Structure formats: structure tokens, C-alpha cells
Amino acid sequence: MNISEEKWSIQQSQVPPSPHHPHSVMSPQMSGMPMQPFPYDGPAAQGQLHSQIYVPIATQTPSTPRPTSSPSNTNTSNPASDRKVIDNRPTFTTTSFHTTPFQAGAVRKRRTDTLGFSQDVGPFFSPTQQHHNIYSTDRTLSYKLRINSKVDRGFFLADNDWTCYRRNYFQISSAFSILSTTHHTMNESDIPCLLEVDGQFHNISQFLLGITARVSNSDKKIELVQHTPKRDKGPQMVPVPKPIRPGGNLNLSSVGSNSNIVTFERIQFKTATANNGKRRAAQQYYVVMVDLYAQTENGEQIRVATSTSAPLVVRGRSPGHYADNHDRYNPMSMNPAFPNDRHMGFPHPQGPGGAPIMTQDFGGASFPGPYNQYPPFPGFPPVNGGPMRNDALLMMPNGQAPQFHPQHPHQQYMVQGISEGENPNPDMYSNANMDSNVVNNSHNQKMHDIHMEGVTTASAPHSAFSNFESLQIQTPGTGPNAAPEYEGFHMYHNDNHPTSNTSAHEGYNSDNEHHSNGLNHMNGRQTRQDSSSEHNNSSQINGDKSGHDSKITNGNNNNTNYRIGKTENTDKL
DNA sequence: TTCGACACAAATAT
DNA sequence: GATATTTGTGTCGA
């Protein structure tokens, strides 16, 4: 048994293992599977032609081991791993622990996995919604934007909802790619793009990427705050859009500079969702929106693309409060054998090894559950929240019947790993559940990632995400780029430091971890950012102190500040 | 019930 | 192994 497995066994001893919490062994990528170029015949976009998509060949770098969500991580050479195993022992010595009624199951969580990498996963992101057309400077090529995002920490699955605590940090890393419709290469440092807004073409001087939050299925903005390491003693800021270059690959630990990856660290929701844990009250959800802006030569910043997270629950109180209060009304889901898994009563769709499977689109069928404020979803989100990347689908038989969950009307977020440009297998897009819509041989042109990385998919106009909430976002002017994508949720951090990838939820692939956050133990620790990452981002955190007091009173800071003059066709910063 | 503040202690970095 | 830093979260009052 390797170190991770040892940890795994410790945790599993606390909570009955759930068959719905498969391990990351399902994920070849998580095991460092090299990625190869593959031909992809999916439709690029309306009026565009299918093409071969090149994806990065991810090489395993011993010096920078890639994180894995699998408990069967075999790397035991890292001294830190040994320490972490020790640290993983259940801790029963804290004062707070003894004051709680949850001692029996208490298992302290580690902040990082055995490699110092994040094993955690977070809420999935929707297909990229492109709001404006982007063209080459000579206007002969239409480009498509794709945003890849991942949540590195802070979230766990509770009741199949992606959940976090308002007071806890989460972190979002994003990158984006520009897809060309023809064989075309360009200098990554250049942005030879034209932005079309209301029929007018503007040169794009740079791109920026920002995050905001709002109430799911509503336009109500939710304030995000960003802290310094000083936390309460330091200033609180609103995460502001940061310059970003295309071509970032969140799966790579680091390739040169990170100017093509933006990370927002120490982010918190200013407010919690309503009705957390209440019975017979509809759970409110938030979503995080990752917005890509194009700055024109005159300095105008226009939102050109958006990717939206899965619905999120933000708990406002300490985890202990929810330990015995997680039975939000759901008369069908509770299974007394698994008091912490209210979905044990349902047969989650699973593939070999118990991994949840990707299910198909429901074709617009209305969601049958009580919370139908969300569009239909094709099945359960990953209960484990673990390494369920879309590549795991490759190991799953086709045609598994989707399952509804009456309590979770929102989209199933099982394809978090479909980080555009990271999955080598085209089958995932031509799965029996989606293929008819994805593969479109009417397209003859080839689509390439301009940067030849980070892109694997073309559009899936009627994909399993076609009902995803974010697709409700008005995207006028999208034109040929309107087709939905499968956004990637990436497991790997983006910078050099092997420990830089935080891991709030290495146990998302663990039953115990799943339940432990606020359910079975107190003082659960989640991963912190390492110092190198701290330094990397200190400037961005501290560099924008002006105008920000310790308290943020503008509940709509982000959008108020950065979406001035938004219209149907223009969404400017 | 939520939120802000304070405090404690664990996890992790150095 | 000691120390410093970071962060999860218990607690309390508003």
C-alpha cells in the first residue's frame, strides 16, 4: 500500500465507503497518460468545418509530479508525503474537538495530497459562451474562444451540491484558448485579433480574465472578496480582471511564465446562499462566472466570453452547524445506512469501478424535481467529487441510462476534466450519448488551437450541456461561435512549484473526505497555498489596495466596475 | 440565520 | 525538530 492508500484506508475507516465515490483510477489523465494529437471531426462552429484538433502531449515530469486524485498514487519518494501520512492521523486533541459531538468520526483533513499537489476538484464549468465574434486581422478567419477554469480548493460535495463555506478560501484558475478554423499558427505573444461589436471591428490589444458571482438562475450579483494572507487584518479586495494571454494549459504544472493562466486566490463569497440546510425550503445557489474581456486599442474592455460554474452552495456557518443539519428536505434520498450521503438511496449511474458516468442530454425535457429553477440535467453530479474527469468516460460503457435526482435539478457536472485540449480521446465527444450532435461531417475545415495546446474539442451544439444554465446567457453576436463546448475542469496547477497546487479536497474522491467536511469532524483543515504561490500572487493581491477598505460595501463591485455600459452586444469592463 | 470579529489550533513551509 | 506562516473553524455578539 502506498502512502495515499494508507491515508485512504484511514479515512474510509470512518465512514462506510460509498460506491458512488469512485477513485481516480478511472482517469488515465490523472495517472499521467500522455496526450496525443487526435483527429476530431466535431463541428467547429456554424459555418466552420471539422478539423483535426491537437492536444498537448502531457509528459510526466518527475521533478514536477502531477497531482492525482487517485488514492493509489504511487509516488512515495516525496518526504512530504511521509509527513502528510502522519499528519493525516485523526486528531483528537484540540479543544474544539472535545467540545463537539462529532468526535467519533473525526478525521482531520490534510491540506494537500501526498505529493503536495491538489487532488481536489471543484465545481465544473459550463461551455464557453462567446459574446462577440473574433476575427483575424485580415478578417479571413473566425476565431473561437474557449475558457478553461478550475477551482483548486474550497469546495466539496454535500448532498451532491458543490458546497463551500463562506469563510473558507477558494481559488480559481483559468486559461483560455483561441481556436482557428484553418491551419493557422501565430505567435502566442501576439493577439492578432479583431473584435466585432455592432458591426464595428476593433483591434484587440490584450485580453483580461475576471471572475464574478451571481445567484444561479438570477441576475443578482454576489460579491466576491479576496483576502491577503493577513486575512482579517489585511485589506479585502474585489477580484479584478487580470491580463491573460491565450494558450494556457491548466493541466501543465508550468510551462514558462504563467501569463496565460490567471489564478484568483483566497477568494470568498461575501454572503452565503439562502436556505442552507433548511427543510422544505428551496436551496439557493450561486454560480461563479469566469469572464474573458477583450481590451481594444482605445482601452475599452468588452466581455467576449463567459464560462459559468456549476450551482454552488455557500454555507454561512461553521461546519459543525451542518453536521446534523444536512437533511434538507428530500424524502427520497436519505439512506440511513449512509447518513452523510443522502443519495445513497439512488442508483447513481456508474461505470466500471463505480465511477459516475457521463450521461446524455435530455433534449430539453423539463426537470422533474422540486427545484426546477434549474434546467434539466442528465444525471447526478459526481457524488465523490473526485477524479471524475471526462476522460473517465472512456472507460465506461455507452448508453448508460441517465438518472434524475429530484433534489438536484441542475446540470450534472461530470465532465470537469474535459479541459479543452487535454483529453486525447475523441470518443468522449462522440460518446453514444452525445455523438450525433458532436460529430458533424458537414464541416470540412479544420479547427486548430492557435497555440496547439489546450484544445481538444469543437462544438457540441446539442451536447449534454445544452441545457446548462449558462447557456441561458444571452450571447448575441456570437454568430458562428455560439456552439457550446465542454469546459474543462483541470486537476493540475499551473505553476512550477510542486507543492503549489493547493488541495482543499484531496478527499473528494474519498467517501470520508466527502462527508468529513463539516459533517464528521471539527477543525477540518483544508489545503493552503504554498509560499511560492503566495509570492507569485502577492502583487496581484496587494497591488490593488487603493480604493478598497477593509470592508467592501458595494455588493456588485465586480460587475459595477467592470461591466459598464453592457448591452446585448457589448459587455464592457 | 447570517455576518464580522476574535481566537485557537492544525497543517504546512522554512 | 523548531519556528513561522497560513488557514479552517469554534464562538460570540450584533
From TrEMBL:
Disordered as annotated region, ranges: 1-45, 59-97, 229-252, 472-573
InterPro entries per UniProt: Fungal_trans_regulator, NDT80_DNA-bd_dom, NDT80_DNA-bd_dom_sf, p53-like_TF_DNA-bd_sf
Assigned GO CC terms: nuclear chromosome
Keywords tagged on the record: DNA-binding
Pfam family, one: NDT80_PhoG
DNA-binding residues (ranges): 83-326
Organism: Gigaspora margarita
Biased composition (Low complexity): 24-39, 61-79
Protein name according to UniProt: p53-like transcription factor
MF (Gene Ontology): DNA binding; DNA-binding transcription factor activity
Chain ranges passing through the membrane: none
Gene Ontology biological process terms from the UniProt entry: meiotic cell cycle; positive regulation of transcription by RNA polymerase II
Comp. bias (Polar residues): 517-526, 534-543
Domain NDT80: 83-326
Compositional bias annotation for Basic and acidic residues: 487-496
